[in-house]
Amino acid sequence: MKKILYCMHVGWNWIKQRPHFIAEELAKEYDVTVISDYNYRVKTHHNSKAQNLRIKNFYKIPKIDSTKHLCKVNVFLRKLYYLKCIKSENPDCIYVMTPEAINYIPDWYTGVVIYDCMDDMLSFDFTQKKYNQLYEAENKLINRSDIVCVSSENLKTKLQKRYSKSYNNKYILVRNGYSGENISLSDVPKIKKEGKRHTICYFGTIASWMNCEYIIKSLQDLDDIEYLLIGPKQTGVKVPSHSRIKCPGSIAHEDLYEATKDVDAFIMPFVVDDLILSVDPVKLYEYINFDKNIVCVKYPEVERFSKFVYFYSDYISYIDAIKKAAFGTEIKYSIEEKNRFLESNTWSVRAKIVSKMIDKKMKK
After folding, report:
1. Are strands 147-150 and 265-268 parallel, antiparallel or unpaired?
2. What b/e string do you get for 248-275 counting C-beta neighbours within 10 Å, with b at 16 or more?
3. Distance between CA atoms of 150 and 109, rounded to whole angstroms?
4. Interstrand relation of 31-37 and 310-312 (parallel, antiparallel or unpaired)
5. How many whole angstroms separate alpha carbon 320 and alpha carbon 31?
6. 3-state secondary structure string across the chain
């Protein structure tokens, strides 16, 4: 069985995201060793049923990455740890997810290198110096890589414009997907108790791209709604304090259905900026599976979800979408539409695109 060293820039104990799902799927065909950045702030743990998957946590020194000189200590420690793992595992393929990983792949390594470009890293709010460093690192990594997975069409277009045209044959579109049991609640009548507020739910990372302005203003304009925001908070992000905003923190992925089964609608309240324009939101796939109406900000990458969501583009359409989604008694999409969509957008389908390319490269 071929070996993959799968290098995650987030912790295996972080909320379950694209890296976790793809690792589990690849482990059905390969021997997968995951290097995970352990997150000290999150106590949850994801138990994987994949037999050919092992987790190796990298325990970096906390709270020094933003320090000018001490941050180099973690860089040094990571380089040593990756080198040790590469030597001990002798992988046929190294799978990485951040531009800075180029600094940890030794020049003598001759196996297949895959860069999974999940987000447009250069669109995050960095200093010019940091931007330049990431640009150089990503350029080197794409040059070194045999395969570059991109999670959206917009991201693929950006990379094609940003870097050499000689890289264009390396890019393959591997969108995000859905994993888990197909849950159907459509047969359960929607019962609203007298006086009960309509609950609008978001789950995922609570970060700077959340449109808190719309959330607070909608609470002022609509007395009978409340928000349930589930997930870890990005460092430095503060959720507005309000009696009708509940933030229980992180919940294990397998417990999400139980935690959200009584909500009235799901929402993706993002501020559309250069970063979000390249996002194919994992949560939309999960929302659809939970048989609830969905409110989502409109941008080109999510227009293919039009059968399933109520879009908004400004505050007036935001309120209108909330009323249609949370106050209505009918789900916008049918069970048949939902099932067809989910079956063609599973993480298994996504991982097969990757494994096909890996096998092709290994045979050369």
Report:
1. unpaired
2. eebbebeebeeebeebbbbbbbbebeeb
3. 23
4. unpaired
5. 50
6. CCEEEEECCCCCCCCCCHHHHHHHHHCCCCEEEEEEECCCCCCCCCCCCCCCEEEEEECCCCCCCCCCCCHHHHHHHHHHHHHHHHHHHCCCEEEECCHHHHHHCCCCCCCEEEEEECCCHHHCCCCHHHHHHHHHHHHHHHHHCCEEEECCHHHHHHHHHHCCHHHHHHEEECCCCECCCCCCCCCCCCCCCCCCCEEEEEECCECCCECHHHHHHHHHHCCCEEEEEECCECCCCCCCCCCCEEEEECCCHHHHHHHHCCCCEEEECECCCCCHHHCCCHHHHHHHHCCCEEEEECCHHHHHHCCCCEEECCHHHHHHHHHHHHHCCCCCCCHHHHHHHHHCCEHHHHHHHHHHHHHHHHCC
Residues in the chain: 364
CA distances 163 to 220, 274, 327, Å, are 46, 17, 47
Rounded CA-CA distance 348/179 in Å is 8
pLDDT values of the chain reduced to their tens digit, one per residue, 364 residues: 899 999 998 888 887 889 999 999 999 999 999 999 877 766 655 666 778 999 999 988 887 777 877 888 988 999 999 999 999 999 999 999 999 999 999 999 999 999 999 999 998 878 898 899 999 999 999 999 999 999 999 999 999 999 999 999 999 999 999 976 777 655 444 444 455 899 999 998 899 899 999 999 999 999 999 999 999 888 788 888 999 999 998 888 788 888 999 999 999 999 999 999 999 999 999 999 999 999 999 999 999 999 999 999 999 999 999 999 999 889 999 999 999 999 999 999 999 999 999 999 987 5
The pair of structure tokens assigned to 333 is 């999409």
